[in-house]
Amino acid sequence: LLGVPLSRPAAAQSPAYDLVLKNGRIVDGTGSPWYRGDVAITGDAIVRIARSITEPATRVIDVGGQVIAPGFIDIHSHARRGIFQVPTADNDIRMGVTTVIEGPDGSSPVPLAPFLARLDALKKSINIGSMIGQDSVREAVMGDVDRKATPAEIEQMKALVAQGMKDGAFGLSSGLVYVPGTFRPTEEGIDLARGAGQYGGFYKSHMRDEASHVVQSVEETIRIGEEGGLPTQVTHHKVIGTANWGKSVETLRLVEEARARGVDATIDQYPYTASSTSITAALFPAWAQEGGHAETLKRLTDPATRARIKQESARLIRDERGGGDPKNVVIARCEWDSTLAGKSLADVARMRGFQPTLEGGAEAAMWLTERGGCQGVFHAISEEDVERIMRYPGTMIATDGEIPIFGRGAPHPRSYGTFARVLGLYVREKHILRLEDAIRKMTSFPASRLGLMDRGLLRPGMKADIAVFDPATVRDMATFEQPHQYAEGFSTIVVNGQVVFEDGHMTAARPGRVLYGPAWTGAH
């Protein structure tokens, strides 16, 4: 030991860690009961968790007994609506979301690589990854036609899916209620899903029908996973239309039976009794949308065809997304007239000189489509189904939201409130979930589905994506009437080791990264 100094006073004073979060209630993402402790971060990773960490750190934040949890992972996000305009993703960060997965419902850029490269170059506060969209793949090869694909076209589509997986997709998404996905037979879906599975991906489906045929649609989703040989997910699971309420008993039984026989079937869900999509997509029959918007407009000029569309649209308002009354359909955004946001189909019917009946609502929907189309919010889901689906252990939480431009339009409040709503309403007030189980549904569960082995848990060696919040005050503020309101109760959000939100304000840090799926061939 001769020549070795007994102490190094100067070095002893240098910080051992970059950041220490002290005095927290640690909810680690596993579902295990919380425990008291400190979390130390160096660089972009968690390096130590202990009952008490006293070594010096560049920065220490005393969280005062608040919950320290992994950052939330939103496995179903439409973040490309807004990420380039609002790269700070304030709505997500302020409710604890540190990672969003784009490309759901069958819709993604094709090819995927240029989009991910553009995201990679963007200075952003949040992590983002993507699925490859089956509808977008079909449209690239076949257009919006209603016919079976030829063997050559299927090979072309399989090649595009394979390329999407190599570009970094986490799996294949489908939107079977939308054109052109609705024209796709199950067998074609199995073929493409099998290709994604061979690259380590999973299949996530906006099902063919979430109303009268919701049970058959869950069966189809399970079949695609079972025969395609890959994990399968019923995305934003809900039951639409009063006549169908309660069918979640049967859909959950189907998922549980599939799991029992070895099918890796799971669910994601947002905690609201209203859905949101395009008014045309929701209230027009698929045949009327074939060939795109221009063809739809042509059909509306033919009196006999227009009458057929009106009849079917009135039925959809009565039995499905309209919840039985045009007042239940509210406009979220019309690019061509911002003043319509917040008005219902019943309001628009009156504006156009019609009674606010089912037929008047259909006339309003046709007029909105003729003018250019609008996004809508549809109140047609029961609270009992929401709670039943939420309780199921195989359900994770996701927003199905976007990154809104603050104050613009009347978007679904899920974009601002989903994760906080679960923690405030369904954990603290309704006791539908334990806090630890809710956090698991937001963190380690979606991480494992995505194959993100370095996120979703609080463990040394994991990436330092962290949400700190007060379980006594966390709540969603966004409402359908006033959606542009940030969640409350979150005090500190860390992404890749850097504080991006603190004391009610976004910071200047932009540490967000593009996350890549299991078959990515690029360099990390």
What does this structure look like?
It is a single chain. The chain is an alpha/beta fold and 524 residues long. The protein is 35% helix and 19% strand. The chain is built from 18 helices and 21 strands. Strands 1, 2, 3, 4, 5, 18, 19, 20 and 21 form a 9-stranded mixed sheet that branches. Strands 9-10-11-12-13-17 form a 6-stranded parallel sheet, with helices on both faces. Helix 8 links the parallel strand 12 and strand 13. Helix 13 crosses helix 14. It is globular. It starts with 8 loop residues before the first helix and ends in an 18-residue tail after the last strand. About 2% of the residues have low confidence.
What are the SSEs and their pairings?
Layout lengths: L8 H5 L3 E10 L8 E8 L2 E6 L6 E6 L4 E4 L1 E3 L15 H4 L3 E6 L10 H9 L5 E4 L1 E2 H9 L8 H17 L3 E5 L10 H13 L3 E5 L7 H15 L3 E3 L13 H13 L4 E5 L4 E5 H5 L2 H4 L3 H9 L1 H17 L9 E5 L11 H7 L6 H14 L3 E5 L3 H9 L3 E3 L16 H16 L5 H8 L1 H7 L15 E4 L20 E6 L2 E5 L2 E2 L18
Parallel strand pairs: 1-4, 1-5, 6-7, 7-8, 9-10, 10-11, 11-12, 12-13, 13-17
Antiparallel strand pairs: 1-2, 2-3, 5-18, 14-16, 15-16, 18-19, 19-20, 20-21
The count of DSSP E runs of length 2 or more, i.e. the number of strands, is 21
Task: State the end-to-end CA separation.
Answer: 42 Å
Number of helices: 18
Helix/strand structural class: alpha/beta
Low-confidence stretches: 4-11
Apparent shape: globular
Give the C-alpha Rg.
Answer: 24 Å
- As a percent range, the share of helical residues equals 25-40%
Task: Specify the biggest β-sheet.
Answer: 9 strands, mixed
**Average predicted local confidence, pLDDT:** 96
What proportion strand?
A: 15-25%
